Amino acid sequence: MRITFELEPTDIARFHEALARAERLAHTMDECDIVETAKDALNALPIGGAPSYVRVRLTAVQRMILMLEDEEWGLPSAERGEVLRTLVYFADPEDMIPDHVEVIGLLDDAIMLELLLRRLKHVLQAYDDFCAFRRAYAQATDAAARHERGTALARKRDALRVRMRRRLEKIEAARP
What we know:
Helix content is 72%, strand content 0%. By secondary structure, it is mainly alpha-helical. Keywords: Membrane, Transmembrane, Transmembrane helix.
């Protein structure tokens, strides 16, 4: 069964208000605490019984955590802040619909994650491309090969960051 609904501008405004609350909370927390809290939330949620529309978005939360912790990727601070705000909202058990409410407790998390994932699409795509490129160099064994790998990864990371920023600028320029 497929159920769709349309969010009105007032609905979107409510989500923006909730995200602003998460942003204020993020400023009071250390990045490591945010990541650990998000990990704890992922571990505590009854994911096995969650609807598939929630599980799909929770996979994206796991990807965001990996991206933040990936030292070779080194996500730039502006994008890092966006991801951290997303994790703060996700990890808050008392968000718009408290997570413990059966059946619908994670609905607001799924909607918010979908909205934020659309905004972070270019960041996640760049990270996926970086990971694919890095896998191609996974077999570097001697010093020369490791040096070549490091140089190639740095070049690819820089090119992907440029692409990421260009796409973000296009998105922001298109907003009313």
